[in-house]
Design a protein that fits this description.
Blueprint: H1 3-13, H2 18-23, E1 26-27, E2 33-34, H3 35-40, H4 45-56
Antiparallel strand pairs: 1-2
Length: 74
């Protein structure tokens, strides 16, 4: 998962709350960091995404492939 995919997934899953989810929500599995702090510390976006999903109880069926754009049609 790329950083851009991570940010898109957060926006899609938590519309209108993206800023607070990234900046305020402390993620215990990531040493008590917020998602923003974890990104700055170099933790892979995929790891942050799954920690965020666990914390916010996002159903399994919405975790994988989140943030990816649909392929362009030719």
């Amino acid at each position: 998962m790329r950083r851009s995919e991570f940010l898109r997934a957060v926006e899609d899953e938590f519309p209108g709350r993206t800023s607070s989810v990234l900046n305020d929500l402390v993620l215990t599995p990531l040493a008590g960091r917020t998602a923003k702090e974890a990104l700055a510390a170099g933790i892979p976006p995929r790891e942050i995404w799954f920690a965020l999903c666990d914390e916010m109880e996002v159903p399994e069926n919405r975790r994988h492939g989140a943030g990816r754009l649909e392929p362009r049609r030719r």
